[in-house]
Each structure stands twice: as C-alpha cells, then as structure tokens.
Design goal:
mainly alpha; Arc Repressor Mutant, subunit A; repressor
Amino acid sequence: MDSTAPAQTPPRNTRQARSAERRRRIFQALHDCVIDKGYTRTTLADVAAGAGMSASHLLYYFRGKEDILEQYFENVSEKFLARIGGQGDAPVRSRIEHLADLWFRGEASTRTEIGFMLECFGAAVHDEVLRVTKAEFDLRCKDHLAAIFEAAPACYLGDDRDAAEVAYAMMIGLRSAVYFDQAMDLASAHRIFRDTLLKIASL
C-alpha cells in the first residue's frame, strides 16, 4: 500500500451519524450535570467531561453552555408537543386522560426530570432564546387545551381560553408542587389534574 496516498474521507452519511451521536452525548451530559448540580453551577468543562471530550472539541458543535441548553430545550419541547398533539381526533375524555398520563406518569415525570424542567424554566428568565422557546411551548399547550374544551359537551368556566389558562397553570403548578411539597406526589397530582379537567369539560 502506498503510504503517500491521501487518507480517504469518511462517507458523508458516516460523518453525519458520528456528529449526531456526539451531539446526543453532549445533550445527555448537560442533562445529567444539570440534574446533579444545577444549571448555574454546571460549567462547559463539566459537560465536556460528561460527553467524553475536551471543551475545545465541544465548541466545534456548540457555541457554549447556553447554546447547548437552548437547542436541547427546544428539542424536548417539540417532542412533548408532538406527543400531546397525537390525540387530536380522540374523544375529549381520552385526550384529557392522555395528557394527564403523559405529564404526570410518563418518562418525563420522575422527580429528577421535573427538576430539570424547572431549571430550564428558571434559565429562560434571563435567556432570550429560551424565553422564546418557553413562550411558544406555553402558547401551543394552551391552544391544545383550549381545543379540548372547545370539543367538550360544555365548558364549566364558560370560556375555552379561560379554561385553558387554568388547566395550564395546574399543569405547571402541580409539577412544581411534586418537587417542592413533600405532601404532594405524582399520583395525587395526576388525580387532581385529571379530575379537575374532566369537571371543567363537563364530563
């Protein structure tokens, strides 16, 4: 074999797959660091170490810690919105139960995942990109809830948008209560949310 021959460039698909895997590892490392020590105490070096690479290598994929969180939070938000929107044609009761199960019983309902979500919401106060993503997430969740109440036999509160505001406040408030209030657990939060929405929907 001629040692002077140029090294072959990996196929484009291979490079893309490798890049996607490294980005996934970086996202997971940030997630784990935030759960372990909080967002403000997490450094770029922490994330790089968790992803098994140097900080300079990590900066090839992201501009910094904030950029990682912004993109990761957007990805998580889009996935959740896609999942709650998948019941659009189901009966109202089924849509309410699906949302309650997804928010209070799904894989994102553990105490650690709730803590991660709250960290993201807190960071959005001072991060313009996160704030836009959070505002879009809020709006689309409320639109989904309003559509549920619009399809209900009757809306106990009289106005679908008002009902959506109340329901979304419960979604966020009960998740926070599970994290901070020792008297509140996920099962209780699930029951309160489900039963209240069914009552608002006159079911």
